[in-house]
Structure formats: C-alpha cells, structure tokens
C-alpha cells in the first residue's frame, strides 16, 4: 500500500469510495511517522489515541450514511503554535512546555468540522521567530532531502512532515516567509493567503499585522481543497475578511493563457547566479503556457527587511508581554517578589532569539525612538503597499524566487543578519498583506529543491493558485519525493 504517494484529494477519495477506512489511513500515516520521524524530528507530538478515536468516529459516521466533509479521512499536521483544546501548545518554547490550550483555534475547528483528522503537532523556531527551525527549544528539524541541512523556518516541522510524506497536508504560519521559505527548501507547495483570509483566532500571536496561517501540500489542488475549508469568515478574529470562502478548486482550472505576469527584473538581477538561472527556467515554463511578462517596479522591497524587523518586533514585544510568569506557562520557582517573578520566568522560559526580538521591539516603541523607527517604518510600509498596487495595475500576478539562497547546512549560518536576509524575497507580501505561494521549480547544485514564488494583489488568492496550478503541471518536478523517504515503513 503506497498510500504515502497519494495527494490529500486521492486519500479522501479512497475513504469516501470505501476502499480504505479512516482508521486504516490514520494508522498508516502514524506508523510511518513513528518509524521515520526520528531522522527528521518534524513532529513535537503525535496524537495516536486522539487521532484514532476521531478516525473510528468518522468510520461510524460513514456507516450511518451521513454526509462526509471536504477533508474526510485526510490526516493533517498542525504547527505547534496553533491551538487544540485540552492539548499542549508549546510554540517550541520552554515557556509553554506544559501549557494546555483552553480552546480550539478556528482552523482546528474548521478542519475537524470537515472530517480532517489531526495527527500531530510540528516543530518550529521558538514563537515562529527564525528561518531554519534551529531555534526550537526542543531541538532542530532536519531537511528530508539532506538530513544535514535545515528545512528552513519557522514552520520547518510542518514543511518536513509533508515533504517526507508523514502527512499529506500540514498548516504553518507565515509572518515574514515562514510558510514559503521552508516549502521551497523541502520541495513542496506552501501558501500564505491574503492577510485576514484565514482566521488567526487560536494562533499564538507573533506580529499580529503580519501573521497568517496557511497550508503545506504536495500539489496546488490540495491547497485549493483545504483553502475552501480554512478561508472562511470568523467572528472571533476582528481582522477576518467577512466574505465566504471562494470556490478555489474550480477557479484554478481556468486557463492562464493571455494573462500577464509581472517580473521585477531589478530585484531578480540582484540575486545570485544560481537563483537567477532557476528563476529564468521557471519563468520560461510559464511563458510556454501563453503568459505574457511585463517589467514591474517593486524597488521599495529593499526596505522590506528593515520595515519588518522594526514593526514585527514591536508587535512581538507587545504580544509576548502576556508571558509574565503569572498567567501562562512557566513560573520561576526562585522568585521572591513580583519583579523577580517576571524576570526569572522570562529569563528561564525564553530562548536567545526571542529575548533579542523583545528587546528590539521595546526599544523601537520607547518614547525617544518611536518617531525615528516605529512611525517611519509604518510610513514606508504604506509606500510599499502603494507601489505593489501600481505594479498590479499592469499585471495579474508577480513572479520572483522564493528564497535568495538554497537550503543550507544546519548551524552554518551564525550571522543573525544573514539569517534575517533569508526572507528578502518573501517579506514584501507580508508587509503588504498579499497572497503568495511557493511551488517547486527544480534543484540547486547541492541537490536541494528550490521554489518559484507567485504573489497576487490583496484578495487575489484564487488567481495566485491558478497560476501555481498551471505552473506546477508544466514544471516537470511536481510531486517529487525525497529519495530517503520514498519507501514503505517495513
Ligand atoms: N524568518 C522571519 C523571522 O524570523 C519570518 C518568520 C515567520 O514568518 N514566522 O521573523
């Protein structure tokens, strides 16, 4: 039974048509993960009992002849900053090592309402701050294409488990690139929807004006399938877009011939030769489909990293102030008074990167510096949004590489600024709230995968998926499986 090779839609079909029970499917993927994940460390937790119970209940539902949901029988993994009621949500931090979530995230609810089965929680950089999954308090995740390499981050665990086929779908969160960069590094599809398209209720906040939940899959059809479930309006998130989910599955099939793709040539030419070569080959695959290219100016993108690290750290310092040793998670035992309780709990609970971001965020918001940094960054953000709008007046989507480098060796990137530059190609979409996807586009010299990024205007999610769908079909690398994991569990 080579179930691991199937897409989520094909797995659902096996269940719905009665060829396999939900219990058989879930058991298969859990056994596979238990057998192989010791090499990858993509999962922080596998919900064997919970998942099997849900699967058995779904089998009963099917026997009763009830209508089956859009994700019926499909195993799903969640990044461990997304809550499941009564289960631990660690954010890969010692601070929340034993923190039990009191409610379900809206995405958790939506998945379970549509009969998807959540099989586990995945590793991340602590509080989603990082680009390599090395900053997890519980040890790093390995890239399934080369175990000495990072899978990218921060949603590295979610990317790795889909790449190694331990689950056909996982969810990540993308604040500056954390879905797209790891998708590119692990040879899978990763989608960051328009800001507000997917509810953030129950996602532990990092940078609230940037954070967006989105899926990892092996094919664009599966992104379309799960976006019909995730992209629903939510009353518990004030930034949720109050429009019904689109019919992505039928939208992606429509032709892209005659459409226009914007190419920011100025930005592309600043990339390394290897990245440029791969991008040019990918672009040719798109133009072969009858798509026209136009040059677009997104030159303000050069400020994106600076804007992001001012605004996201400001938001993070505010969001993380709730972790004070009193209300959530860790409480230092050594504290003798309230000030010490805050100090000791935070010193013991947070890792170095998180502390650095809190300090930076507090600095840019402090009275003397707010105008110089925080407000100036907000102004540049507005200019960037306007520049994107101008660009989209001349094209349907914009294409660019997903990452400025290929996957890199674990612990080889010691310079924090180099790590921050990992998101040079992705952060613009977060700053402007745009939908953007990474689709596999071939391989680098180190034999690790690379991705093509397609960015759309706000609410242009289905347009982005449509380009990605046709590109993937024509790419020649659709559905490649890392050789190390292209085998059954026996
Ligand atoms: N790498 C970026 C950071 O470290 C983005 C992280 C993310 O998208 N969650 O902040």
Polypeptide structure, described:
Helix 2 packs antiparallel against helix 3 and helix 11 (304-319) crosses helix 13 (352-365). The chain has one domain: Amidase signature (AS) domain (Amidase signature (AS) enzymes, Alpha-Beta Complex), CATH 3.90.1300.10. The mean pLDDT is 97. It has 17 helices and 11 strands. With 490 residues, the protein is α/β, with parallel strands linked by helices. Strand 2, helix 4 and strand 3 form a beta-alpha-beta unit. The N and C termini lie close together (11 Å). The chain is globular. It binds glutamine (GLN). Glutamine (GLN) binds at residues 128-131, 154, 173-178, 206, 422-423.
* Biggest sheet layout: 11 strands, mixed
Biggest sheet: strands side by side, in what order?
1-3-2-4-6-5-10-11-9-7-8
CATH topology: Amidase signature (AS) enzymes
- Residue runs with pLDDT of under 50 for 5 or more positions: none
Features:
490 residues; alpha/beta; Amidase signature (AS) enzymes; eleven-stranded mixed sheet; 17 helices; 11 strands; globular; binds glutamine
SSE blueprint and pairings:
Blueprint: H1 8-16, H2 22-40, E1 43-46, H3 48-63, E2 75-79, H4 106-113, E3 117-122, H5 156-163, E4 169-173, H6 180-186, E5 189-192, E6 213-217, H7 220-230, H8 248-251, E7 260-263, H9 265-268, H10 273-287, E8 292-295, H11 304-319, H12 338-349, H13 352-365, H14 370-392, E9 397-401, H15 416-421, H16 427-431, E10 436-443, E11 449-455, H17 461-475
Parallel strand pairs: 2-3, 2-4, 7-8, 7-9
Antiparallel strand pairs: 1-3, 4-6, 5-6, 5-10, 9-11, 10-11
